[in-house]
Design goal:
62% of the residues lie in helices and 0% in strands. The protein is mostly helical. Helix 1 crosses helix 4 and helix 4 packs antiparallel against helix 5. The relative contact order is 0.19.
């Protein structure tokens, strides 16, 4: 029996990005180490906002207005492990559905953003 190799397409639209972040948050919410951070999130508001944010980052749209760091400053108990898990789950969410230049850019940007948040939020 011949294996069928499906070629994933690259991220092209905000709907593609919404697919990635929805998959990421499903994983994150189930994770025993970071899931508790997502217990009281208004998902109807948060998912579209995150789609706008990531569309701004990787598709160069102009829909996002905000400061993600301000929204996370209250999270004073974050550890390096939390960021490692976040990045691993985010990368998995991208890789499950997409491949290509924009998908790679999204993962690279997630890593860079994660490093900035790590520096600013993890206690020394």
């Amino acid at each position: 029996m011949e294996a069928v190799i499906s070629k994933k397409r690259d991220i092209q639209t905000q709907a593609d990005i919404l697919k990635v972040i929805t998959a990421f948050y499903e994983k994150a919410r189930k994770n025993s180490s970071i899931g508790h951070y997502f217990l009281n999130v208004n998902w109807e508001a948060h998912l579209p906002l995150m789609a706008q944010f990531w569309s701004f980052i990787v598709l160069n749209t102009d829909q996002y207005r905000g400061n993600p760091m301000v929204k996370h400053q209250h999270m004073t108990d974050l550890t390096n492990e939390h960021f490692d898990i976040w990045l691993k789950l985010f990368t998995q969410a991208v890789d499950e559905s997409f491949s290509g230049e924009i998908a790679e850019s999204m993962k690279k940007n997630a890593n860079q953003i994660g490093q900035i948040f790590r520096i600013k939020l993890v206690s020394k």
